[in-house]
Design a protein that fits this description.
Chitinase A, domain 3; 5 domains; about 525 residues; peptidylprolyl isomerase; 28 strands; 6-stranded antiparallel β-sheet; rod-shaped; isomerase; peptidyl-prolyl cis-trans isomerase activity; alpha+beta
Amino acid sequence: LGVERRFVPESCPRAVRPGDFVRYHYLGAFPDGTRFDSSYDRGSTFNVFVGKGQLIAGMDKALVGMCVNERRFVKIPPKLAYGSEGVPGVIPPDAVLHFDVLLIDLWNSEDEVQVQTYFKPEKCPRTVQVSDFVRYHYNGTFLDGTLFDSSHNRMRTYDTYVGIGWLIPGMDQGLLGMCVGEKRIITIPPFLAYGEEGDGKEIPGQASLVFDVVLLDLHNPKDGIVIENQLVPESCERRSQTGDFLRYHYNGTLLDGTLFDSSYSRNHTYDTYVGRGYVIAGMDEGLLGVCTGEKRRIIIPPHLGYGEEGRGNIPGSAVLVFDIHVVDFHNPSDSVSITVNYKPSNCTVLSKKGDYLKYHYNASLLDGTLLDSTHSLGKTYNIVLGSGQVVVGMDMGLQDMCVGERRTVVIPPHLGYGEDGVEGEVPGSAVLVFDIELLELVSGLPEGYMFVWNGEVSPNLFEEIDQNHDGEVLLEEFSEYIKAQVDSGKGKLAPGFDFEMIVKNMFTNQDRDGNGKVTAEEFKLKDQEAKEEHDEL
């Protein structure tokens, strides 16, 4: 017997032993080069057990010690081949046979699934168990490296349950114990794969299979959401409940770290009600019990996410990981919250509707982001309380303050700037926090009045206003008279309003026929007007 090793692969983890099953290609020829047989011509390997008498003696010996992908040139004398009888019509008597052999596959009936992990993540909180659902990519090859299938080529993961018979038995075994992100090579003998018949397509009978697998996703149908607290503020006066409205930022990734969405990239929070079905079920649950400023990770199985179909760039049956940062939240039933930080000992005069106020403030969001400050402008903010010059919540928050008092006013969006906010300044649906110090208070007039007398009213008031005594008062005459009364201290205008605007408003109310003149018949003081007529204001 002559054996010439014409090619030996660098890696040879296993060599043929008696009792092994092999698949190989060969060319059979006589010493003069005349070919008498070829597996290549038949388009299929020669499949046989070694050392069990199923081959001529010379081939039984020549195959021992071969590696997969090794090529041998074998010379077999007649006594180790077909002897003096030969094979009628094919092999003459006493013929020396030459075989050019290439070993394609090798296995033993006692083999088991072989698993070789070549990458494992540092963190592995969970491994594949029976009845888990997994998503993985793979390249499928034969032992000689020939590719027969690849999920990468289809650009779609293979998604399946493990250990319940949805896979070939060897793959069911080989996936157990894997971590998300782990990469392993799973070698499966044919009796744990597609057996003697193959799959009828790409995989021939009796073929060992090699799968290079990377696990991307893992969950169990019984899983609930998982919450991992990353940052919880030391002070947490309130936690979110069903019906609250939240504003939060998030990064959304798959279990393998692939980013599929981010509110940060849009530079806009995600705003939604919680517990009302406005978001996927897992997020509805995961956003309950959070504090403003809290950061948490919410891991959501697909049956509480986007299910088997997925959505957009989220694949079907994908576990979702959301890293969220809660910016603020409120409830539609919330009112203004007032915390008094300092109150002077002499606090008898309290602000009321109509008073003219001067105050300093710092305005921020609930997460501490500064929006505006009068201190930076170097001047106070001045308003008439209750006149609609500020948002409703601020009108409420400035009530009953005394000069020198400092308070924090928290205003929900429905009493602030609402869903739209102020473009470029205040986000929509934002809770506002104002730190306020009242510096000056000028008492206003009774509600409905823009001008009052400080003393007795002249019984000849119309005649005094009608300076040219023509029986008609023009706007100029009316304005000059009111100004003189204010300057002399006999009368008082509502503070905080434009003088000309108030006077024109008062004159228009007296000019009942709208002809630009007020006559003695039209002219009436407020307490003289019939109740059904409109107020001077």
